[in-house]
Specification:
The chain is of the alpha/beta class and about 210 residues long. It contains 6 helices and 9 strands; from the N terminus they run βαβαβαβαβαββαββ. Helices cover about 35% and strands about 25% of the residues. Bound molecules: 5-O-phosphono-beta-D-ribofuranosylamine.
Length: about 210
């Protein structure tokens, strides 16, 4: 733990490759943040063991509902667990729940998400599949601040890649994922070092305060 770095928690529901990219970047010093907690709505999410294997506390909290959202009571438990660890920033990394007012208010302007498309195109489930089926020639990923919508918050960073003649949906998916990992580490670094200012829909890069 570097006491000068802010505390970062990660919410994830599945595999956790983006979470792993953030944790490894923090361990190597590339990302100036202290990961304090990985939280999942899914007790069987591989991300939980992955985080523990990297020495980061990981826990499951029941969502209280089968799909889409957390119940307000369970959301309060998420807020409590995050606050207990002194969380200052939250990164969603494949967290399959829409956040409600409890979390959004408790961490206003301090929650980021990674999405596998060039938003505002193809929000929601399976961004790469949607893009592939639409026949796009350029795909990519987006990091954005989280608001009450689904993948609608102010955009922090985007990386675009060309769809290549020999691409399949799977090859495109893995090439986008590779970009997600790098883009997320860079964007979270900008956020936790105070280099971002939100003005309406636009996110400006500023000198750290
Ligand atoms: C990623 O494609 C991310 O952009 C999306 O969900 C997927 C999670 O993958 N929100 P992983 O669990 O980080 O490997």
């Amino acid at each position: 733990m570097n006491p000068e770095f802010p505390k970062l928690s990660i919410l994830a529901s599945g595999r956790g490759s983006n979470c792993e990219a953030l944790l490894r970047a923090a361990a190597s010093g590339e990302l100036p943040a202290n990961p304090v907690l990985v939280l999942s709505d899914n007790p069987d999410a591989p991300v939980l063991d992955m985080a523990r294997s990297l020495g980061v506390e990981a826990m499951h909290i029941e969502p209280g509902r089968p799909r889409a959202r957390l119940t307000p009571e369970q959301e309060e438990r998420y807020v409590e667990a995050l606050r207990d660890r002194g969380t200052e920033w939250i990164a969603l990394a494949g967290f399959m729940r829409i956040l409600g007012p409890g979390l959004l208010r408790a961490f206003a302007g301090r929650i980021l998400n990674i999405h596998p498309s060039l938003l505002p195109s193809f929000p929601g489930l399976d961004g790469v599949g949607q893009a592939w089926r639409a026949g796009v020639q350029v795909a990519g990923c987006t990091v954005h601040f989280v608001d009450e919508g689904v993948d609608t918050g102010p955009i922090v960073a985007q990386t675009a890649i060309s769809v290549l003649p020999h691409d399949t949906e799977d090859s495109l998916r893995s090439r986008v994922l590779e970009q997600e990992h790098a883009t997320y580490v860079q964007a979270v670094t900008l956020a936790v070092t105070g280099c971002l200012r939100i003005e309406g829909r636009r996110v400006h890069r500023v000198s750290p305060v």
